[in-house]
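Sequence in, structure out. Go.
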Amino acid sequence: MSTVLDIPAQEAHVVRIFSVVEEAGAPLEDAAVLDALGAEGKLRSEEIELFDLTDLQDMPLSAYLTEGHGIAEADLKDMRGQLDGLKGRVLILPSRAFQGQTMTLRVGGALRLVGRFEEDVTPVSFDPLPAGGAHGTVAGTGAPSETPRGMRRAALALLALLIGAAVLVLVLMGGS
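Output:
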């Protein structure tokens, strides 16, 4: 029996955690695990994480989800024991993998949905600019009317160098 998950278009900031169901000594190929998602569409596989929990070493899965996926600790508190008690491999499926498309997943027996969590995203707010900070208009984009002072000095120095070189050539030619 499979679990059917309907993913809405433009879903964002949602992370689903699956436990990989494997027999001891007979691990599934990564491709078989991804196929067990039963996606009726193209998933961005580079967004999907599939790993053995021993790769986290001393870090519990709940801490990884908080630090690595921005899931609020308060959202994990009721599931912390179940998440941290998982063994073997897990598959983490973020919304980014769906590329904003509506999709149906028919999750097969190799995967068991453990939980669905929302990333803790800070709302963006735009404060008004300080008074007078953005008033006025921008003049045309033509060339500047005056040559910058540094360019003028460089041009005068070059002119003096050329005159000095010409005088030196005249003195050397006149002396022979």
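Check: The mean pLDDT is 87. The beta strands are 3-7, 14-20, 49-52, 89-94, 103-107, 111-118.
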